[in-house]
Amino acid sequence: MKALAALLLVVSSGDYDRLDTPVSVDLKLADLGLTAEQAAKAAFALLETGAASAEPVPAQWDGQCLTFVLPGKTVKGATRKFELHVKKDEPAPAAATAKVTEGKCVDVAAGGKPVFRYNHGVVAQFPDKPSKYDRACYFHPLWAPCGEIITGDYHPDHAHHRGVWFAWVKADAGSVKANFWEIQEGRGKFVNKAIAPIAGPVFAGFTAQNDLVSGDKTILKETLVARVYAEPRGLRLIDLDVRHEATDEDVVLGKLHYGGLGFRGRDEWNEKGAIVDVLTSEGKTRKDANATKARWVDYTGRLGAEGWGGLLAIEHPANPRYPNGVRVHPSMAFFSTTLVQPDAYTIKKGEPLVLRYRLVIHDGKPDKALAERLAADFVSPPKAELKRER
User: Fold this and answer.
1) Dihedral, CA of residue 169, residue 291, residue 342 and residue 314, to nearest 10
2) pLDDT tens figures, 179-221
3) In 215-301, which residue ranges form alpha helices assigned H by DSSP?
4) Which residue pairs, CB below 8 angstroms and at least 24 apart, start in 47-53?
5) Phi/psi at 51 (5° precision)
6) DSSP per-residue string spanning 177-218
7) What is the pLDDT of residues 107-141, one digit of tens each?
8) Which CATH number does the domain housing residue 341 bear?
9) For labelling alongside 35, which of 17, 227, 293, 320 has CA 20 to 30 A away?
10) Contact residues for 297 (Cβ-Cβ < 8 A; gap 6+)
């Protein structure tokens, strides 16, 4: 593997201790003497300087940035340096994969283990007849590191709830009064227009282009980007970027206590006597978290005979009205984080709404220290810079 000796990658941990933290740095291919076509076929790696027995750290180019996982522990205030190496015409093995079943789904795995399925095609409630609850463009199942599924779908009490999904309840565009959440009303549906998978040594995922249609009119265009990291070990990190763009008219999202990002837990968490454990960044639990603001919310339940696990949802501070409100249902295994709790929000034509989240699927019950560390990694990641050696 050829060393690009003139380039060093300098990583600063900043104000937080780090542990196996995803990092991205802008990369100009001209600095490497590579074309875009060559970069797409090349293997990138980082070799830490001054380390006695450092293993090469895989890196992945996405067309703009070079992304890697800063290995091991890095204490706050520390700086680490890496030489950038490249091998042309020999792509690195994909530690994270994305398998597309055309017209149906994308299955994303890390380290050979499934992480999630994104159903871009229609998932029917019944095999032999149509249903008003048939749905598309949502995540289910999600698998915990232990291998158990944490999401539910088509539960009888709220059959429109669907794994992990992103939708609005009140979406008005002129005379169109759409509802993309309660799909059984027939006033809103998702239609996938394109799906583009990506896989590599550091992350895998996809970009989906979806239309949000009410009646015969598309009122919003959705671009959904999902990325799963092959590391850190013992966790499943999913970055979601959601972009909603008004087509012909402004879209007014009505004030409501739920909407936006939704999560429905596995069916066993809804049974009589089932116990779930909820914690928010503000120390709220299932008893008092509803209609409060939170930077993150962790929702867990039993997995199998003795295990526990669930989903930690971290919001990015660039999101409008951050931190947003949460809806934590008192009896159903469901939560939502939404920007329309305090008031309506208008998506103006030409001014798309962009929302970012990091979802962490984990084993065990909520852990405040772990959640705060992961939140810091997402909202204030280590700073990385490519420099030329003198």
Assistant:
1) -80
2) 999 999 999 999 999 999 999 999 999 999 999 999 999 999 9
3) none
4) 47/3, 47/82, 47/83, 47/85, 48/80, 48/81, 48/82, 49/8, 49/81, 49/82, 49/83, 50/81
5) -95, 130
6) EE-SSSGGGSS-EEEEEEEEEE-BSSEEEEEEEEEEEETTEE
7) 999 999 999 999 999 999 999 999 999 999 999 99
8) 2.70.98
9) 227
10) 278, 279, 280, 281, 289, 312, 313, 326, 328, 335, 337
Place of tokens 């409501």: 256
User: Do 250 and 318 fall into the same domain?
Assistant: yes
Q: Examine the domain organization and report whether 63 and 143 are in the same domain.
A: no
Cβ atoms of residues 181 and 170 within 8 Å? no
Enclosing domain of residue 341: 96-378
Partnered with residue 195 across adjacent β-strands are: 208
Residue appearing with tokens 């597309």: 100
Closest CA to 85 of 201, 11, 3: 3
Q: What percent of the chain has pLDDT over 70?
A: 97
For residue 319, give Cα distances in angstroms to 9, 215, 221, 314.
Answer: 29, 29, 18, 11
Give the Cα separation of 385 and 363 in Å (integer).
34
